[in-house]
Amino acid sequence: MQEFSRRSFLAGAGMTAAACAARPLFGMAAASGSPFKVSVITDEISQDFDHACSVASKEFGLGWVELRGMWKKSLHELSDSELGQVESILAKYDLRVTDMASPVFKTDWPGAPKRHPDKSQDFGSNETFKQQSELLAKYIDLAKRFKTNKVRCFDFWRLENVAPYRAGINAKLAEAAATCGKQGTLLVLENEFECNTATAREAADTLAGVPSPYFGMNWDPGNAVMRGELDAFPAGWNLLPKKRIFHCHVKSAMKDASGKMVWAPVGKGYVDWTAQFRALKQIGYHQAVSLETHWRGAGTPEASTRISFAGMKQALEASGTW
């Protein structure tokens, strides 16, 4: 893990931001050579969907984006007319969609003690448990509309002791995966630090408990680190069933001066993305690697995402995957 002072970091961040503002990070030709679908979650750049897509396409040189929210609404809250605008903007910038970054199952498990997670991590998860089936159905329809076969999900807000509820949660995930499978869609569980599957070790157990061919993983080593699994790569990674990794989120985390775990720009912190990208290539992974910055150290989502994307590009190049 790379440690650095706040003053030296801000100085470096300022130079990186200036460089990013002065010229595009890289061109379209470079992105086309990657074995991965290099992507970014658009609302990590801006809630202005047209602007976010412009940055992703024209400046980052991408052909893929991940959809979660735009115009201060979650994707499933948009009207049909607004969804039509999303389609038009994607076509305008020649962008395809990796998956639906849905908030399915980011809610309390019924009968378990209520938890009060960091609400900044909600990302549109306002529906109750009883509304989850309807929410999943919406995202399956949205996946078809945006020509992808993946719907991201979680496994409920984290409990201090999930053991009494784990079998029931696994059964619910299996049921949802079967629903997806009937519609030609895959259910992709993200290891989320505020949910019951947060680390690689927990993910390996959950995947073993839900053996459906329609159920796989959105691997997020940054989330695992945030939960305290500092060896998410390579030790945690080595425990995962590689053929069931369907998607990958790119971010990082580190300890601040007080010892608290905080988000970090890609290229800093505990996650060695060069090694992780190399490992993904070695297993024959050809799905998305999608930037989900979360770090806001540059002051705004867009400025922070630009710095993290520069770090992501450097790691892709160093790993021979750009």
Structure in words:
- This protein is of the alpha/beta class.
- The protein has a single domain (6-318), classed as TIM Barrel, CATH 3.20.20.
- Helix content is 40%, strand content 16%.
- It contains eleven helices and twelve strands.
- It has helices spanning 6-22, 28-31, 49-59, 80-92, 132-145, 163-182, 200-209, 221-226, 232-236, 273-282, 301-318, and strands spanning 37-40, 64-67, 69-70, 73-74, 96-104, 150-153, 186-190, 215-219, 245-250, 252-255, 261-264, 288-291.
- It has an eight-stranded parallel sheet.
- α5 links the parallel β5 and β6.
**What class do helices, strands and sheet pairing give?**
alpha/beta
CATH secondary-structure class: Alpha Beta
Treating each run of at least 4 consecutive H or I residues as one helix, how many helices? Answer: 11
Low-confidence stretches are 1-30
Assembly status: single chain
Beta fraction of the residues? 15-25%
Q: What would you give as the CATH superfamily?
A: Divalent-metal-dependent TIM barrel enzymes
Q: Which radius of gyration do the C-alpha atoms yield?
A: 19 Å
Q: How helical, in percent, are the residues?
A: 25-40%
What number of structural domains do the residues give?
A: 1
The largest beta-sheet arranges its strands as 1-12-9-8-7-6-5-2
Number of DSSP E strands: 12
Q: Whole-number average pLDDT?
A: 90
Terminal CA distance: 23 Å
At the third CATH level, what is the topology name? TIM Barrel
Largest sheet: 8 strands, parallel
Strand-and-helix sequence, N→C? HHEHEEEHEHEHEHEHHEEEHEH
**Can you name the CATH architecture?**
Alpha-Beta Barrel
Q: Choose one word for the global shape.
A: globular
